[in-house]
Specification:
3-stranded antiparallel β-sheet; 2 domains; 3 helices; two-stranded antiparallel ribbon; alpha+beta; globular; about 40% helix
Length: about 110
């Protein structure tokens, strides 16, 4: 499981243009990935399965046409605010497009 978790951290850091936080002391408290230019702090979890991934997959299969992106919004009872889960590749494309626009580069991205 350790390799799968580390691979996920590397994948997320690369996709989002962030940096993986490597801890010398395993019990040291720190996030797994930080994307400084968007102030994203990411905790990475790799398990055999997640129930909300099944919900997202079902939504994609049932409602999305080619080129559409599934998203899952969740809110627990009494929770302030809500969360949204989207595919990593889609979020990475948005961040890269914003970076291009911010840096004055005009390239078409599949966002």
């Amino acid at each position: 499981m350790s390799k799968r978790w580390k691979d996920l951290e590397r994948t997320v850091a690369k996709a989002l243009g962030g940096r993986r936080i490597v801890r010398e002391d395993f019990f040291e408290s720190a996030p797994d990935v930080v994307v400084d230019d968007f102030r994203i702090v990411c905790e990475c979890k790799a398990h055999k399965r997640f129930s909300h991934h099944s919900l997202l997959d079902k939504s994609r299969d049932k409602y999305c046409r080619p080129g559409e992106v599934p998203a899952l919004a969740t809110k627990a009872e009494g929770q302030r605010g809500a969360y949204i889960t989207v595919p990593l590749e889609w979020l990475a494309a948005i961040l890269n497009r914003v970076r291009q626009m911010r840096d004055g580069k005009r390239e078409d991205a599949n966002v």
